[in-house]
Structure formats: structure tokens, C-alpha cells
Specification:
By secondary structure, the chain is of the alpha+beta class. Helix content is 35%, strand content 16%. The chain folds into 2 domains: 238 residues, Amidase signature (AS) enzymes (Alpha-Beta Complex); 196 residues, Amidase signature (AS) enzymes (Alpha-Beta Complex), CATH 3.90.1300. Helix 10 packs across helix 12.
Length: 462
């Protein structure tokens, strides 16, 4: 069998094939990942809650099944991690809130259960910001997670621990979640791949701060995988949705709309240069790229996005949290009447329809995942924090604007690394955006585009 020590950065699909062929021991691979988490991963602090004994037992069972010639699931023996906000049986679910520490979940969230049914070995859970409400992953329960490319910089949020763990080779892939960029921003800043699927594909029940035992599906947020290649995003999507993969189109003749200019979402020179280089590579490979006008009124969509996200967040608040939020709300954002919310839903659907016209002209839209590379850690409160974009101060809370512009329409988005940026040398990511519910086709296009981009690289020292 192949020594698992050299497989920490191997793709999930390859690992599953090696385990099924009895070329890799699932138990030895799991023990290898657990050792990496305990040693190299200690300073990174990405995997914050381990389920080691159960993981080893599950991996041992996979080896026994493989030895007996039994049929294995598509993820059998693959060690994965899960964002801390998901319920995982036997582990606490806190979403970084100290008052929820020490309360183990009695059952897996539906998406976690599907991954286990496919044979995945759940190593543990990855770090998040408090209540998932920041683009940094730092909380009083587990502390701060750093970026594997530079320990002085943030890994992003709220799926920051997810992206950091995958980039550093502490997990084959991770199950993250995304309301307004929580998969896409960390994926871009850590140099990995992320899928924000269309709404309605994958259940997000059993995830804080939405009620863990609630039956409603959130109206805006979704869950999706973070991985080291498009192939693994597609594999996870197939497992989580019980769908088959779409064919990969040829790059030659592919129609790519390029959207990089939004006054409310500035993009710095370093990020723009990396996107331009990616575009040039696609043109050289025969794709047709074209600058496109804004498909929607960006200012109006961002305001709508804030209201829709506020509306979702309120459902997960306790009575005490609701009263505090309502008392402190500016502009009445927490006082929406049902009539107003229905009007917002009409506007949201109109936004989706506006995007439909775009995809009559283009196979995919390429836009920034976020306007800058990962910034340094900053303990300033989120609403007061700023970053500098080409020397101009910009509210850090607005860095997710490129994500919100597509989330409002419920569109699928694949984030891929196209960096490193110059002069920082840090990862730069772009979003590839597809038609609503066209996730399978988008993943095929992303796989074709991935052939000519810089792609995932092992961070120095990992």
C-alpha cells in the first residue's frame, strides 16, 4: 500500500479510488491526517474539535469492507472536516458563541449525514467567527485561525477554518456554508476552491445560527464544499445532491463574460492584474471573453441583500438577542413587516430573471471573489474595521459585496485560485457564476477553465 504520509494533499476522488483498490489504508490515512492536525496544524488552529476515535473506527470499517470485496461508497475512507456551525453527533455546535459550548449534538445535520452515508470519515470541525458574522475566524470558544500562507493574515470567514484546513492539507475537503461570501472569500484568501450552490439543492438544516432542530430551510444561505480542485467540488456535489456529473465543455469557443467594475465593490490593482492574466490565458486557449455591463443595479441589489440577510438572521435569534438587535437596529432593518418581506422576494426574483438574460449571451460570468488578498488580522470590531484598497480606506464589512451581488439571485458560484498576486505572493481567487440551478453545467465549465489557471498550490511549509 502507498504510504499515507505523502497523500495529505491528494484529491478526494483519487484517495477514494486508492482505498477502493486497496492501494491505500483508510485507517492509516486517517491517522496521518490526525497527526498533521495535532502537529503542524496546532499553530494554524483551523480544526478545533476532533472526533478522533470515531474517525479511526469508521476508517477501520472501510478497510475491512474493502478487504471483503464489498461495494464502497464514493467517499469511502476519505477523511474530511465540517464547519463548526453544523451539527455533528457527539460534538458541540457553538458557531463561536461561548454560551453554547459543551452541548453535544444528538444527531448529524442532514448534509453531514449524507457525506457519512457515502463513506466519508469525519475528522472533526473547523473554526468560525462569532455567530458566523465576520470575515475573520476568531471567537472566545476556540480562538483565532490564521492563514496558512501567512500566519499574520486572516483566513477569512465564516468558513475560514474550512478553507485553511483544506489549503494546509489537514482535510481532503470540508463542508462549509455561505450566506454572503462565507465560502467564497475564505476560498479566495486561502487559495482553494469553493462551491456556493444554487439554493434548493442541499439541505442546510442542523446549522447554527439557524435553529438546529428547525424544519425550515434558510431562504438565502446554502452549504457547499471547499476543496483543492474542481473535481472534488463536483464529487461532493454529486454525493450531496444525488446527481450525476455534467460533461466538460471544450475551452475553445467558450463564451465568458467578464465583470470587474462595481463602484460599491472596488478591486485593487493586484487582484485586477491576476484576473487579467487569467483572462489572457483563457483567450490563448480559444475562449471568447468580453467585458460586460453590470447585469443588475449593484447599489440596489446590495441594499436588498442586506435586508434579505437580516431577515434570515432574525429567525435564529433568541428572544433576548432579538430584543437587543431590534433596539439597536439602524433604519429599522430588524422591523420588517411581512408585506415588505414579500416585496423583497419579488425584487429578488426579478434579480434572478435579470441574470437569466446574461446567460443567454454567456456560458459563464467571471468576476472577483473579493477585491483584495487576505488582510492582516485586525481585532477592531467588524463594523469599525477598514482595509486599504489601492491606498483608499474601505469598510472591511463591505468586502463581501461581490458575493452578495450573486447570492441575492441564488446563483451558483465556483471560486477558483488564479494567483498568486504581485507583489504580495498571496492567493487571488475569482468567481465563476452560472445560471440558477445550472450547477452541474457550471462545474463542467469550471473544470475546463481550471486547466489554464494557476490553481491550488501547497502553502509554504505545509
Amino acid at each position: 500500500m502507498t504510504a499515507p504520509q505523502g497523500l495529505a494533499h491528494t484529491g478526494a476522488r483519487q484517495l477514494a479510488a486508492g482505498i477502493a483498490a486497496k492501494q491505500i489504508s483508510a485507517r492509516e490515512l486517517t491517522e496521518c491526517y490526525l497527526e498533521r492536525i495535532a502537529k503542524q496544524g496546532g499553530a494554524l488552529n483551523a480544526v478545533v474539535a476532533l472526533d478522533a476515535s470515531r474517525a479511526i473506527s469508521a476508517a477501520t470499517a472501510v478497510d475491512a469492507a474493502a478487504a471483503a470485496g464489498e461495494a464502497l461508497g464514493p467517499l469511502a475512507g476519505v477523511p474530511i472536516t465540517v464547519k463548526e456551525a453544523f451539527a455533528v453527533e457527539g460534538l458541540a455546535t457553538t458557531a463561536g458563541m461561548a454560551e453554547l459550548a459543551g452541548r453535544p449534538a444528538s444527531a448529524d445535520a442532514p448534509a453531514v449525514a449524507l457525506l457519512r452515508q457515502a463513506g466519508a470519515v469525519v475528522l472533526g470541525k473547523t473554526n468560525v467567527p462569532v455567530a458566523l458574522a465576520d470575515l475573520q475566524s476568531d471567537n472566545p470558544v476556540y480562538g483565532r485561525t490564521s492563514n496558512p500562507w501567512d500566519a499574520e493574515r486572516t483566513c477569512g470567514g465564516s468558513s475560514g477554518g474550512s478553507a485553511a484546513a483544506v489549503a494546509a492539507g489537514l482535510s481532503a475537503f470540508d463542508l462549509g456554508s455561505d450566506l454572503g461570501g462565507s465560502i467564497r472569500v475564505p476560498a479566495a484568501w486561502c487559495g482553494v476552491y469553493g462551491l456556493r450552490p444554487s439554493n434548493g439543492w442541499i439541505s442546510k438544516r442542523g446549522h447554527l445560527p439557524w435553529p438546529l432542530d428547525g424544519l425550515l430551510e434558510p431562504p438565502m444561505s446554502v452549504c457547499g464544499p471547499i476543496a483543492r480542485c474542481v473535481e472534488d467540488l463536483a464529487l461532493a456535489f454529486e454525493v450531496l445532491t444525488s446527481t450525476s456529473r455534467a460533461s466538460r465543455p471544450a475551452l475553445a469557443g467558450l463564451r465568458i463574460g467578464v465583470w470587474t467594475s462595481v463602484p460599491e465593490a472596488p478591486v485593487d490593482a493586484e487582484t485586477r492584474h491576476a484576473i487579467d492574466a487569467c483572462r489572457a490565458g483563457l483567450e490563448d486557449a480559444g475562449a471568447h471573453t468580453q467585458e460586460m455591463a453590470a447585469p443588475v443595479d449593484a447599489e440596489a441589489v446590495l441594499v436588498l441583500g442586506d435586508r434579505l440577510m437580516d431577515a434570515e438572521i432574525t429567525h435564529g435569534l433568541s428572544d433576548e438577542q432579538w430584543e437587543a438587535a431590534a433596539a439597536g437596529a439602524e433604519g429599522g432593518s430588524f422591523h420588517q413587516l411581512l408585506r415588505h418581506h414579500m416585496a423583497d422576494q419579488e425584487q429578488r426574483l426579478a434579480t434572478t430573471r435579470a441574470w437569466d438574460a446574461v446567460f443567454d449571451a454567456f456560458d459563464v460570468v467571471m468576476c472577483p471573489a473579493v477585491g483584495i488578498v487576505a488582510p492582516p488580522h485586525d481585532a477592531t470590531p467588524r463594523t469599525q474595521r477598514t482595509v486599504r484598497i489601492d491606498g483608499v480606506a474601505f469598510p472591511a464589512a463591505g468586502l463581501n459585496a461581490w458575493s452578495v451581488l450573486t447570492s441575492v439571485a441564488h446563483l451558483p458560484s465556483v471560486t477558483i485560485p488564479v494567483g498568486p498576486g504581485a507583489p504580495s505572493g498571496l492567493p487571488v481567487g475569482v468567481q465563476l457564476v452560472g445560471r440558477f440551478r445550472g450547477d452541474r453545467e457550471l462545474l463542467g465549465v469550471a473544470a475546463a477553465i481550471d486547466e489554464v489557471v494557476d490553481g491550488w498550490r501547497i502553502p509554504p511549509g505545509w
